[in-house]
């Protein structure tokens, strides 16, 4: 069943019957996932070149890997200070089948004598094109608002002054890690739906922080777990890989991820039965410049998705940065792939640690850092 179907089944039949009769629950999410990018092997030119600096459609890529390998970050921006165009847009263009301009320069060596190249590449011409993302699929995420007298432009979108709006970013009750809050079935080696293709979880994501406060149902009330993922860009679809622009902030990658969760027992069924009225997150005031912003209020996703919340006696309109339409579409597609036998489910080769602690960056001396 999809996560939505499963929750309705539990409501009608109870957890015990659901755990006995349902084998797999499919989840989905689609939203901005900044810590993303792709690596490429372009192949060797004649004469060969050791690429020192690389640009793909004017976006710099990192080349400190090997002669003709490069990594393009989704949030890397055009060097002309164009904040509307970034690495995520180049990745989407490639997935759409477009050719992009590759420029590279080199200092030249005896084995790599060429010093520059200017050509076009596509997913058909490169040897490897692999999406490799170090933090995706955040487990819960804080909502943002703005108490100041000026408009703020953030990765949470445009926040209007004096609590003019609040934004959030999650598919709520159908989001993968909210249905497996303790990562019992999701770990290293888990097969996933990634950008329209199949990919894998390769490690915990950066900023992985499972030790946050949780509800009685075990659901984190703050940003907690995240996933590092990998998949073949050549197999992906632009329906689920999109370049995004946040006004006066920069770019990000809109990405679809789905995970099939096996119902191991009644506890797993109970976790997958969680609904938006039981999922709590914090509302932060982004006009506060401190890293540790004060929590204005805790709200449920049912409240956020109702279209407004109450803050400081004011009715504040809410909007989502995630696409519920695409999240539901992913969970349905994944369900059909499982039913056809096209999507296999494996036990993780290694589970995530529940003891990981996320640390902030402090100003330290060399001795204090050791």
Number of domains: 2
**End-to-end CA span:** 50 Å
| Shape verdict | globular
**Helix segment tally:** 8
Unreliable runs: none
**Oligomeric composition of the shown chains:** single chain
What is the averaged pLDDT score? Answer: 97
Q: Which class best fits the helix and strand makeup? A: alpha+beta
Radius of gyration: 22 Å
Q: Tell me the β content.
A: 25-35%
In total, the number of strands is: 23
Largest sheet features: 13 strands, antiparallel
Instruction: Give the helix proportion (percent range).
Output: 10-25%
Describe the protein.
- By secondary structure, the chain is α+β, with helices and mostly antiparallel strands.
- The protein folds into two domains: 3-34 and 132-340, no CATH class; 37-130, no CATH class.
- Helix content is 17%, strand content 33%.
- The protein contains eight helices and 23 strands.
- Strands 2, 3, 4, 5, 6, 7, 8, 9, 14, 15, 16, 17 and 18 form a 13-stranded antiparallel sheet that branches. It has a three-stranded mixed sheet with strand order 10-20-21. A three-stranded mixed sheet has the order 13-23-22.
- Strand 17 and strand 18 form a beta hairpin.
- Helix 1 packs across helix 2 (15-21) and helix 2 packs across helix 5 (266-272).
- The longest helix is centred in the last third of the chain and has 17 residues, at 324-340.
- The radius of gyration is 22 Å and the shape is globular.
- The N and C termini lie far apart (50 Å).
């Amino acid at each position: 069943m999809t996560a939505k179907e499963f929750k309705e089944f539990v409501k009608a039949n109870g957890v015990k019957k659901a755990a006995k009769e349902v084998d797999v629950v499919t989840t989905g999410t689609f939203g901005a996932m900044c810590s993303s990018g792709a690596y490429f092997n372009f192949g060797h030119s004649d004469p060969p070149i050791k690429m020192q600096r690389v640009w793909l459609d004017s976006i710099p890529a990192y080349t400190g890997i090997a002669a003709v390998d490069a990594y393009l970050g989704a949030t890397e921006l055009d060097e002309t200070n164009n904040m509307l165009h970034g690495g995520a847009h180049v990745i989407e263009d490639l997935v759409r089948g477009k050719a992009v301009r590759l420029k590279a320069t080199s200092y030249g060596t005896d084995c790599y004598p060429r010093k520059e190249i200017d050509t076009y590449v596509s997913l058909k011409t490169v040897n490897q094109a692999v999406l490799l993302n170090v933090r995706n699929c955040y487990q819960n995420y804080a909502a943002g608002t703005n108490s100041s007298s000026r408009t703020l432009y953030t990765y949470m979108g445009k926040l209007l002054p004096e609590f003019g709006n609040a934004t959030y970013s999650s598919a709520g009750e159908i989001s993968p890690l909210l249905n497996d809050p303790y990562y019992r079935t999701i770990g290293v080696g888990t097969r996933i739906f990634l950008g329209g293709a199949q990919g894998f979880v390769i490690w915990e994501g950066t900023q992985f922080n499972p030790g946050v406060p949780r509800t009685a149902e075990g659901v984190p009330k703050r940003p907690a777990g995240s996933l590092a993922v990998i998949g073949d860009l050549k197999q992906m679809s632009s329906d689920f890989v999109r370049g995004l622009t946040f006004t006066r902030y920069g770019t990000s990658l809109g990405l679809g991820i789905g995970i099939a969760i096996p119902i191991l027992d009644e506890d797993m069924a109970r976790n997958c039965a969680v609904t938006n009225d039981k999922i709590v997150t914090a509302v932060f005031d982004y006009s506060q410049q401190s890293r540790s912003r004060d929590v204005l209020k805790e709200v449920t996703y049912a409240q956020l998705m109702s279209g407004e919340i109450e803050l400081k006696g004011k009715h504040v309109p809410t909007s989502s940065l995630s696409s519920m339409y695409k999240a539901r579409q992913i969970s349905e597609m994944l369900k059909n792939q499982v039913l056809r036998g096209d999507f296999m489910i494996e036990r993780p080769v290694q589970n995530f640690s529940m003891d990981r602690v996320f640390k902030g960056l402090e100003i330290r001396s060399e001795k204090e850092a050791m």
